[in-house]
Amino acid sequence: MTLNNLKDDLLKGERRALAKAITLVESTRKDHQQEAQHLLAGILPYTGKSIRLGFTGTPGVGKSTFIESFGLFLVAEGYKVAVLAVDPSSTRTGGSILGDKTRMELLSKAENAYIRPSPSGGTLGGVARRTREAMLLCEAAGYDVILIETVGVGQSEIAVSDMVDMFLLMLSPGGGDDLQGIKRGIMELADLVIINKADGDLKKAAMRAASDYKAALHLMRPKVDCWTADVVLASALKKEGLDEIWRHIQNFEQAMKAGNALVGLRSEQAKAWMWSEIHDQLMDNFRTKHPGRIKEMEQAVRSGITPPTAAARELLQDFLK
Ligand code: GDP
Question: Does residue 233 have a pLDDT over 90?
Fold first, then answer.
């Protein structure tokens, strides 16, 4: 298949073309990367029409269950839904939440849903880049809602919040005051907080948690001027609260579009993405250009023969020669 055919089939929304295009983007082969960049440049005018949602929460909070229920809800409403993940610790065969497809069994069978596990291996930066590019490909293939899941650990939340329009934090009932080990920083990223498992015996605790979190949010500076983060209850298991969450998402989108804030957010994200690419590519080139010399200098710095700043300057001079 030529690159042009791939592009045409992708724009027609063919799943096989989408899968192939994402594989191309994920490939580490130099020629594949060139083709991927060519393809991305060609489809760029057809991107940007979806709503990009990021989901995070600690393992066990019910993210997979929620995304399955919410994805099916959106499909039933007539939307095309793509699910992607950022999980630098994942491998294709296991470990990843989304790699375990059986956990989203119904959604993965739905005609208007596309689920792609996290690209395996590599640094967070690499995984995030490939997920961003996969997101653009999904948009070109006509997907209306992109759900990007992150495991609730480390820096991946920030990477995801930097690539989506709206960031949704999932929490479970109980332990409202200790914020369940969720860092305050993550709470500040949230545009909507979902208290999942608000069902059965947990319902009362969920309501208490909701008011605790509302109070906590109230004390925080709003992330954007046009939107105040709120807390909603849901049960992924019983499929409750999904329509309310979708309403919040639509209101958010409307508010962000009204003030041109969405355009502003996305253009800032694109700019930041360019800089992180420059950083990554520079570092790659730097490390591979004179590896022997770098080792020497590292040794010299370690043993106190050369001051670190002088060593850095010398290595940079060599690099720029
Ligand atoms: P993840 O690790 O965040 O993806 O969490 P999972 O989706 O795998 O869910 C973890 C556990 O919580 C599973 O046993 C689910 O059945 C359960 N669970 C998920 N959502 C709900 C819910 O809304 N209510 C209740 N009671 N249990 C849920």
Answer: yes
Amino acid found at 139: E
282 shares a domain with 162? no
Which domain does 293 fall in, by range? 271-320
| pLDDT tens-digit series, residues 151-183 | 756 678 888 999 999 999 999 897 544 555 566
Structure tokens at 130: 């490939």
Q: Would you say the CB of residue 64 lies under 6 angstroms from ligand 1?
A: yes
* Ligand 1 near 264 CB (within 6 A): no
CB neighbourhood size of 219 (10 A): 6
Q: Determine if ligand 1 sits within 6 Å of the CB of residue 96.
A: no
Task: For residue 220, report the distance from its CA to the centre of ligand 1, in Å.
Answer: 28
- The Cβ of residue 290 has, within 10 Å, a number of other Cβ atoms equal to 15
Its pTM stands at 0.90
Whether 106 and 77 map to the same domain: the answer is yes
Atom 20 (ligand 1): residue with closest C-alpha? 62
